[in-house]
Amino acid sequence: MKVRYRFGDFCVSPARRTLVRSGEELALIPRYLDLLILLLERRHEAVHRREIFESVWSDVVVSDGALSQAVRTLRRTLGDDSREPLYIRTVSRHGYRFAFEGVVEEPEDESPLAAPRPPAPPPPTANGDPFERALEKLLGEDDPDERRGGAEALHALGTAEALRRLGRRPGHEAARALLRDARWDVPGAGPVPLLGQPGGLAAARILTTMRFRRALRLAEKRWAAASAGGAAAGAVAGAVGGLALRLAPGSHAPASAAVTLALVGAIVGGLGAAGVGAGLAAAEAVARSLRGAALVVAGAAGGGAVGALSNLVGGWAVEGLFGRELSGVGGGLEGLGIGAAAGLGYALATPRQEGGMATPRGLERLRAAAVTGLSCAVAALAITALGGHLAGTSLNVVARSFQGSQVGLAPLARMLGEPELGPVSRAVIGAYEGALFGFGLALGLTRRPR
Description:
Elements: E1 3-7, E2 10-13, E3 18-21, E4 24-26, H1 30-41, E5 47-48, H2 49-56, E6 60-61, H3 64-78, E7 88-91, E8 95-98, E9 104-107, H4 130-140, H5 144-157, H6 159-166, H7 172-182, H8 200-219, H9 223-247, H10 257-286, H11 291-322, H12 332-349, E10 357-358, H13 363-385, H14 391-400, H15 410-415, H16 423-445
Antiparallel strand pairs: 1-2, 1-9, 2-3, 3-4, 5-8, 6-10, 7-8
Helix pairs in contact: 1-3, 3-5, 4-5, 5-6, 5-7, 7-8, 8-10, 9-10, 9-16, 10-11, 10-12, 10-16, 11-12, 12-13, 13-16
């Protein structure tokens, strides 16, 4: 049976997805309404922060500050006070509890909600002007939570008027940056342009720094899982490739080829995924309105950096140990292309209109990994067509430079109808590597941290 909850002057309808006060519907972003419903459903107990994240933010990883921000917004909407809470009480080192004792749970189809009435004017404040009071909090408070609360209050009152009044007051650059960051968390908030505005460049720098610090905290939870996913994919690719090489007609590869190539694949895949994954995690934590473009650029930067560094270190190692110059192998350009493709595939598979890092579950997670793998496979085809080298063909170049090597890929090429590695075999091997790399990277990247 569908139910709704009444407390004080408020009524919450989970079925209708509404919060109503004395007949007036109050705007809440969906996740904040989900949090209020969760606290009402479990009002007889304190709900742990971890349980809240897994329930309300089940498909995305966000910082701890996102929950504090949600509770702050709910309290402001309900007219609650954190120091003397009537509705939402903080349980130290645990989570939150809905503290109001007079909650009435009733059938949804009983006594329809009152018709909405026009919104009431903003309540008066100590100085009679709610805008000025919120601006004082935004510009003058030392507590970051209080300053963000001021920014959210200004959006609720009217973004355009808030920006007009902010003008060039002392500290307006940081205030504008915080208004830009907070607009995603207030329903109906207007745009906060930076370019071409007073102090716009300084505000953009402050906003970038603010989000970058947040990104570092979130990204460290993600890039290691992405690296592990890439390493696992590389190991599988190497093992299967080594087994195929061992069984190919005319092959002289030893039985240990599968193990050796699995180890090489794990190292290459893990390093590549570490670079690309770090870029994607950082971009996803920083960008909101331009998330797709940021993922492509950051993925390309991470992949290009790791590819160039690996090529440089590998060249030094081969030259130092064997006195041979390492040439004709993949490096920064190949890493840049695969990283950009991974970012594009991931962006297409996990579209988001809000902050946080996507963590789809079940079939959605597999779909995201498959789309990312397909994108990387297409990029690998383009790279090989342009004469670039990924891991397999790079290994073939190294093997052919050492007389008597047993791990050349010519037997695989002959299975595909070519006497040596040619366009077809290079394309097949490249697409195979790219698909597995992208799949493993995305599967690791979307793993929800514990």
